[in-house]
Amino acid sequence: MYQEQRLAEILELLAEKKQLSAKDMIEHFQVSKDTIRRDFSILSERRLVQRTHGGIIPLDTSRQIPSFNDRINQLNQEKKAIAQKANDFLKPEQIAFFDVSTIVLHLAQRIKEPMTIYSHSLDNAIMLSSQDKVDFHLLGGKFYPKNRFYYALNEAELLEQISFDIAFIGAASVSDGLVSFEDESDAHLKRLALKHAKTKILLAEQDKWQKESKYILGPVSGFDYWITDQEPSPEVQELIGDKTKIIY
To answer: CB 236: neighbour CB atoms within 10 A?
Structure first.
């Protein structure tokens, strides 16, 4: 197990148990005392936990990591329907990029075929690290707690060397035909993932239209497919053009 996968599982266990001891984690992961000490130190430095004598507790209630089931239950029916349509594009032995997105998170839950998946999402890591059929790669780096992703320049640049069969991208906002996000680092990583992707799929509900975020990823027309929850207006369809197939 990679260190970032172990850190993600520690956070999940902490959310459930409210406190963890180093002794219990040594037994749980079958690793050394020094390894767990380093893990606890990293989580403390990222301000995700509070160190105690011999263990850790949540930093505060606002920073606790919800369980996977809690995250899934927050999804509305529109997002679940989009994930179901996206599931039709999954094929055995694909190499895929899974974005930070609640829709993509629900898509990850549906995987039944052997695949290789890269992601910078903490929630995707928690979900997919236990999937025997998935060869999962978590891109590490600094943790951004608001949107729950990791980023480091050297990790992101690895994506330039990969020709993904398919890339699933969420959207913070879509305005005037442009997809944008709140974090510059997040947008940069997605841009690299899309660079050599053979099939590019945007997953975004209609309520993202006319919302605006600071950092532009690119035009909707740069995607092969846009999967959404209802038919866009004629004005929106004209703006996007016929290069992108809209599925609703």
So the answer is: 19
For 108-134, the pLDDT digits (tens) are 999 989 999 999 999 999 889 888 899
Whole-number Å distance between alpha carbons of 7 and 3: 6
Supply the DSSP symbol for 75.
-
Straight-line distance from the first to the last Cα atom of the chain, in angstroms, rounded to the nearest whole number: 38
Residue 223 confidence (pLDDT) above 70: yes
Higher pLDDT, 63 or 240: 240
Q: Which domains does the chain have, with CATH numbers?
A: 3-58 (1.10.10.10), 68-246 (3.40.50.1360)
Residue 72: the pLDDT is 52
Q: Which residues contact 178 (CB under 8 A, 6 or more apart)?
A: 216, 217, 218, 219, 220
Which amino acid is present at 75?
L
Whether the per-residue pLDDT at 70 is higher than 80: the answer is no
Q: How far apart are CA 54 and CA 148, in angstroms?
A: 27
In angstroms, the CA 198 to CA 164 distance is 6
Query: pLDDT band for position 15 (50/70/90)?
Result: confident
What DSSP line would sit under 114-147, residue for residue? -EEEEE-BHHHHHHHTT-TTEEEEE--SEEETTT
Question: Which phi and psi angles does 99 have, rounded to 5°?
Answer: -75, 170
Residue that is written with structure tokens 């349509």 in the block: 85
Structure tokens given for 163: 């020709």
Phi/psi at 192 (nearest 5 deg)? -70, -40
- Identify the CA nearest to 190 among candidates 168, 209, 163: 168
Q: Which amino acid is at 83?
A: A
Q: What is the Cα–Cα distance from 79 to 72, expressed in whole angstroms?
A: 10
Tell me the HSE value of 38 on the side-chain side, using a 13 A CA sphere. 8
